[in-house]
Amino acid sequence: MSRPPATGTDRTDRSLPPANLDPDRLPQHVALIMDGNGRWAESRGLPRMMGHRAGVEALKSTLRLCSDWGIQALTAYAFSTENWSRPGEEVNFLMTLFERVLQAELKALEAEQVRIRFLGDLEALPQKLQQLIAEATTSTASNTGIHFNVCTNYGGRRELVLAAQRLARRAAAGELDPDDIDENSIGAELFTAGEQDPDLLIRTSGEHRISNFLLWQLAYAEIHVTDVLWPDFNAMALKEALLDFQRRNRRFGGLDPISP
Ligand code: IPE
Ligand code: IPE
Ligand code: MG
């Protein structure tokens, strides 16, 4: 991603991970609910749309920080299946913003080896956006850097319904024995197929809910909620989230090791 004054190909401005973070215990996959754009704008007496614009800048710098600090995948919630219920003007603004940002940033994403994918029911998006998504997905598919997943018209329940329909069709056609359906076969039908489950979920703006995000994949994610509004999310806020993650004791249903 470009960050003035450096260009996308100039990596001399790479930022190193903060010294007090343990590089061996970073989450591999961070999921992000970018919330609070509207409140950020309203608190400044600005229209909500300005909050969405500022939110794009926060996403660009967060992606770059994650990549620089050695996180392998970032999955960000950009537009939910429920966000269509917002006023048409806001929905249209967001769709146009996604198009503009994708057009403006594609070269930098390519140069920085980011592999971008869009997760969600993409057929409901405007044609132009669908085209840009297809181009960006294809042109970055063999990139070897961070996996950047943008959830657009994404809903966790919708994702599970689509997966169930596909499995049921294969079973009805005699290609699949229902008894063979297991967690792996369901995971393989999700938009996130091939991606490891997120180990950290960050939600901004102080809301303690997951709002239909990655319902299956977040089964054992650590959850970090910050009061920071998304456009204000910066390196310090990311560092706080990662330090919080490193303080967690992940048991996965088991017990702590007994100390000798
Ligand atoms: C998140 O910010 C962005 C999207 C959901 C598209 P909001 O627009 O939800 O901001 P608030 O929650 O109203 O402050
Ligand atoms: C979640 O934020 C969706 C995105 C960040 C894209 P919302 O603002 O839509 O969530 P709720 O309505 O507060 O649950
Ligand atoms: Mg919100």
Verbal overview:
The protein has a domain at 24-39 and 49-130 and 146-155 and 202-246: Decaprenyl diphosphate synthase-like (Undecaprenyl pyrophosphate synthetase, 3-Layer(aba) Sandwich), CATH 3.40.1180.10. Helix 3 runs parallel beside helix 4 (127-140). Helix content is 39%, strand content 13%. With 260 residues, it is an alpha/beta fold. Strands 3-4-2-1-5-6 form a six-stranded parallel β-sheet, with helices on both faces. The chain contains seven helices and six strands; from the N terminus they run E-H-H-E-H-E-H-E-H-H-E-E-H. One 3-methylbut-3-enyl trihydrogen diphosphate (IPE) binds next to strand 2.
List keywords for this structure.
260 residues; alpha/beta; Undecaprenyl pyrophosphate synthetase; 39% helix; disordered N terminus; binds 3-methylbut-3-enyl trihydrogen diphosphate; binds magnesium ion
Concise structural overview:
The protein is of the alpha/beta class. It contains seven helices and six strands, in the order E-H-H-E-H-E-H-E-H-H-E-E-H. It has a domain at 24-39 and 49-130 and 146-155 and 202-246: Decaprenyl diphosphate synthase-like (Undecaprenyl pyrophosphate synthetase, 3-Layer(aba) Sandwich), CATH 3.40.1180.10.
CATH superfamily of the domain at 24-39 and 49-130 and 146-155 and 202-246: Decaprenyl diphosphate synthase-like
CATH architecture of the domain at 24-39 and 49-130 and 146-155 and 202-246, by name, is: 3-Layer(aba) Sandwich
Describe the main β-sheet briefly: 6 strands, parallel
What is the succession of H and E elements?
EHHEHEHEHHEEH
CATH class descriptor of the domain at 24-39 and 49-130 and 146-155 and 202-246: Alpha Beta
- The shape, in one word, is globular
What gyration radius follows from the Cα positions, in whole Å? 19 Å
Strand runs, count: 6
